[in-house]
Amino acid sequence: MSDVRKVVLSYSGGLDTSVILKWLQTTYGAEVVTFTADLGQGEELEPARRNAEMLGIEDIRIEDLREEFVRDFVFPMMRMNAVYEGVYLLGTSIARPLIAKRLVEIARETGADAIAHGATGKGNDQVRFELAAYALEPGIRVIAPWREWDFKSRTDLIAFAEAHQIPVPKDKRGEAPFSVDANLLHSSSEGKVLEDPWAEPPAYVYQRTVAPEDAPDAATTVEIEFVAGDPVAIDGAALTPAELLTRLNALGRDNGIGRVDLVENRFVGMKSRGVYETPGGTILYVAHRAMESLTLDREAAHLKDELIPRYAELVYNGFWFAPERMMLQALADESQKRVAGTVRLKLYKGNVMVVGRKSPHSLYSDELVTFEDDRGAYDQKDAAGFIRLNALRLRSLAMRDRKG
């Protein structure tokens, strides 16, 4: 281990990463650079700085990455309408490649020999961090303490912390009720009180949304404007990507939108139960699909839908920087050139309802779909030949089977 002189640690300031920080110092004898990313998790980040200083860290990096996160990671994923296993909007998955990217960049800047993370050996995050890091810096060394040390439980961590004068918050003593990860796109809760998939989640699990039954009795109407597939304004007011998602989160929170209770298939092979809240992302997903319904060609839209599961699986499994994800992204981006206009929605007690959409690039034609006189825009007699041609193989099959 003597060849590791400096390590860049993804640091939250909590018990786990504070123990990891001290463990790196004592086990590797290495200088540690801490990196804390502000991705909109809604927590005060200065305690992370104070904890790092207390542990003797001189190079402490705390960076506001909210705009980059939404602009370069969330929005591109939303252009593809990515949903994992039909329900998960990939809030945790999409944050990991950005954190890994900055870990690698800081390692280059500081001449560090390795990066380190606090993901466990049972979860998806270890894969996401490390695949991203190796894609960007193939020779980087990654230290994953949960796969190396002898600690088996939170009790072991607390004992190590107390032995090294690391403060242990009172609410962390004993077994935590559940684990939470959060960023500007979502919050996820897993473990402990949620491990029984038959048991309803306690009300205190929900971090980002009011209960739908407690939401206002009157619907909230909102209009979202799109340009090239990305949202750019709410109710006529132009906003930056992070500002826009923050505003949608507030609307979704107040109306009880974006709760998902799911059992998912982890990349490492096990099933896990989690409770996810994606208030703004859920609104954006519905609005974007509505905008596409007006502006995308049928076959282009259907091709995208066929590819969504593959794209979502790549993001979920940590292949953000893989060539196949980038190829699919190029396809998605090409499809979005004329996905522009405005969608009007009603938000009501957990529901997102599309009530209007308009676009200068609309493919919707009043003349073609009207039940009134279409003034010759569509000759209904043409449908007979169209049906006969499409029925030819079906009739051939039926005649063969009848003979048999």
Protein architecture, described:
With 404 residues, the chain is of the alpha/beta class. The chain folds into two domains: 6-65 and 95-176, HUPs (Rossmann fold, 3-Layer(aba) Sandwich); 180-356, Alpha-Beta Complex (Argininosuccinate synthetase, chain A, domain 2), CATH 3.90.1260. 41% of the residues lie in helices and 19% in strands. The strands form three sheets. Strands 3-2-1-4-5 form a five-stranded parallel beta sheet, sandwiched between helices. A five-stranded antiparallel beta sheet has the order 10-9-8-13-14. Strands 6-7-12-11 form a four-stranded antiparallel beta sheet, with no helix packed on it. Helix 1 crosses helix 6, helix 7 packs across helix 8 (279-295) and helix 9 (298-317) packs antiparallel against helix 10. It is elongated and about 85 Å long. The termini are far apart.
Secondary-structure class: alpha/beta
Helix content: 40-55%
Average pLDDT, rounded to a whole number, is 93
Question: How many discrete structural domains?
Answer: 2
Q: Give the biggest beta sheet.
A: 5 strands, parallel
**Between the first and last Cα atoms, what is the distance in angstroms?**
75 Å
**CATH architecture verdict of the largest domain:** Alpha-Beta Complex
CATH homology group of the largest domain: Argininosuccinate synthetase, chain A, domain 2
Q: What would you call the quaternary organization?
A: single chain
Quick overview:
The protein is 41% helix and 19% strand.
